[in-house]
Amino acid sequence: MSRSFGPNDSSRRGDRVFGRVVGTTPDDITAAAGLIQAGELVGIPTETVYGLAADATQGEAVAAIYEAKRRPAFNPLISHVADLAQALEHGVFNRDALRLAAAFWPGPLTLVVPLKVGSGISDLARAGLDTVALRVPSHPVARALIAAAGRPLAAPSANLSGKVSPTTAEDVVHDLGDRVSVVLDGGPCEVGVESTIVGCFGNRVTQLRPGGVSREQIVAVLGRPLDDSPPGTALRSPGLLASHYAPFAPMRMNAINFSDDDAIIAFGNVILPEFPAERLVVNLSPDANLRQAAARLFSAIRELDARQPATIAVVPIPSDGLGEAINDRLSRASHPRDIPDSLS
What we know:
Layout: E1 12-13, E2 16-17, E3 20-22, H1 26-37, E4 42-44, E5 51-55, H2 59-69, E6 78-80, H3 84-87, H4 95-104, E7 109-114, E8 131-135, H5 140-149, E9 153-154, H6 169-176, E10 182-184, E11 196-201, E12 204-209, H7 215-222, E13 251-252, E14 262-266, E15 281-283, H8 290-306, E16 311-314, H9 323-334
Parallel strand pairs: 3-10, 4-10, 6-8, 7-11, 13-16, 14-15, 14-16
Antiparallel strand pairs: 1-2, 4-5, 5-9, 6-9, 7-8, 11-12
Helix pairs in contact: 1-5, 2-8
């Protein structure tokens, strides 16, 4: 049964209570929206599965999602929006994407489209890619929360990475406990499987993940088959390649010695040798906060690469907690490119 905001058997930190299952009254939704705006995590019902929602425009809030899920890599997250109008603020929709949105939104279809210039969705939510995954959910509670929060919500499934996706509020609490501030109890999910993910680029439409909308339904709307090119030429689902959107400058990890030509990605109170004043240094987190480091990672790589250094050297970063995901992405960024830019 749904419960209103109030203490239950959930964990306490100081005067805060975490892991609460709450109702879905207007007051509950308003309170949950306030938590979202403050950078907290909220469990939300959708028609597919329960999502672990955070403000998609706040890098540190998105980092908290990865931290809570113990997700080993910064894979792109779906950003949930209120309607097509809000989606068009963040993505570039071609004719195919517009037709699919008209047919299946709101509903269990995610569209991956080129990122629109000026979108506020964080680098971390997009895993540093120049594409964005967008969905308009049909669940009334999810839509009410998006409207109340006034911003897109990054919301992967609300479970520990690798575990079974949750379809009830109780599933969320069982898996995440006090890692989530509150869970809005909207009852069991109607669809029960994740959304279908489709990429729309140029004249190609590719199914990246099967889900709540069938291939046959998509083909019927498009009036042509989906692009199923063989591996190596197909549009890949983001995050699968060893090298993806790597910087043009060669990058090396775990650097302890530096040349005069290095730009440096630092972390914590690292002591660097004397270097020319023009050397480029970006410290992901002077306080050695891994959540802050994760939020700044992609912008730091781009900032240094835009200055065209000969090399980018990355100091050692701990591999505990979010450090595992940070090092995973740095490893991908430092890997030799394995596909042409036009296919990345």
